[in-house]
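RECORD CONTENTS
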Amino acid sequence: MTYTDSQIMMTLAAITYARAKDIGSYLLPTTNPSNATNGDWALVWGPAVTTIDEGNLMFVTYNKATNQYAIAIRGTYPYFGLALLVDLYEDLDVSHPLPWQYPPVPGALVAAGTLDGLNDLIRFTSNGVAFHAFVDSQIAPSGAEIFVTGHSLGGALATVLAPWLAYRLSESNAKSAVTPYTYAAPPAGNTAFATFYTELFKSSYRYYNVIDIVPKAWADLSSIKSLYSSPEPACPWELKGTIDLISDWLKDAKVNYTQPNGAGSSLPGVPSPASDFFAEALDQHDHNYYLKLLGAPTVPIAAPRTPARSKKKFPHV
């Protein structure tokens, strides 16, 4: 069966959630024959990960038949407890955006935590080969089309890695075109950055479930309060208070965030009969639900462990 680029890129984004040592097998048709990748995408660099099976992870695949590369970036598994938005606020450091530098764009600002994540990605090394060296020696001379994909916070990182990559390729006069695909991504920067990003790429795609919480941070927080109110489950009053608190923090810091690509491509999520708001939120954000909404086969991956509310934070994403 032939699948669309959007289905394939979401499949690669889903595979990032597997254990690093298993990712190669997820791409093999012999072990995963139903995946939308159809065994056409071979692992050529990575996966590289900040710590063992936790933190930022990235790998590069190549489709020889079409001369296309795809760079896939892992998100993190949010646990949708009451402290979720506060954790994201702290770890993304969204109240302290910094100037975009690849290249410098007047007025363009990106969350400091997202730039930390970008720095992790571009400094990655796999089997002794640095990512930036792989880009310069393998991708740049190839003339191949390059996809950059990620789900959730991996999508936010794809939103900054793609323009970094385009800038790197332009410095070497490479002819490769970069096409970002993001799924369920929160915005990475302000309006000036979003405008720069949208204008930079000839084609770029942003998919989001209309009743997924994560894409609504930080530009549309207030809508979370009534997300599942009809039908239930309703947003808990404690979360409504957290939303108001974060909105005030951003207002006081005079910070705004904007999704690129305007309205993007909405996916029609349907509420389930879940009695718990956070269970419903997790279901709506799940990578396999995005695959279902896109009409692609799911990618079964063991459920993540649920982090306790402590000093543990999302790692730089």
Q: What stands out?
A: Residues 153-171 form the longest helix (19 residues).
